[in-house]
């Protein structure tokens, strides 16, 4: 999937000259946490978000700094903070040079940019024109709407078993003595694990193999120091 496939196309924006109060009201009314800032020609100039409006003198949340700290950080920084906390227009508080993404960008690139730059939304660009916004909520909607893959005609029990074994063998955490049994798409896993976190990793790997309908965990945990042996939670529950 690519950015243009999940982005919000009809985006509400503001101008650099929109008042801070109006921008806050728009966010509340439209249930969004950030807005693109566009000039009179529709060119993206910045982004304004909830975070940009947290430090405001009107509500008593302006930063309080001692004189020596202002000297340490520099008068330029102090001047910037003054404008940000008291500015009346969006251009005073917005983030300039926002991080953007091309409309053809794959979702892994979108998520990577969000993580690296700690942002919740990215303007989506086609050349120099903004064509939408992709947000964390858009990605969550994509996850929620995921359909199961089209059934694979080769996903019979033998193919499923071989795919599981091949993928497991590519991991560094594969269970020792791993064996897998498959019947009618129902998978049973056997082997020894030495870190219980690998149990869930193995199950998740198998669940993602096409054709798998159900997974039964018979992996046994062995403590590497004491040799203490524990059957899988599923097997323990079965005999209790």
Description of the structure:
The chain has helices at 3-6, 20-30, 67-73, 75-86, 90-93, 107-117, 136-144, 157-169, 197-207, 233-239; strands at 34-38, 44-49, 95-96, 101-102, 121-126, 129-135, 176-183, 186-193, 214-222, 229-230. 37% of the residues lie in helices and 23% in strands. The strands form three sheets. A four-stranded mixed β-sheet has the order 7-8-9-10. The radius of gyration is 27 Å and the shape is elongated. The mean pLDDT is 90. By secondary structure, it is of the alpha+beta class. It is built from ten helices and ten strands.
Overall pLDDT score: 90
Largest β sheet strand count, sense and barrel closure: 4 strands, mixed
Give the N-terminus to C-terminus distance in angstroms: 46 Å
By DSSP (H or I, 4+ residues per run), the number of helices equals 10
Topology:
Elements lengths: L2 H4 L13 H11 L3 E5 L5 E6 L17 H7 L1 H12 L3 H4 L1 E2 L4 E2 L4 H11 L3 E6 L2 E7 H9 L12 H13 L6 E8 L2 E8 L3 H11 L6 E9 L6 E2 L2 H7 L1
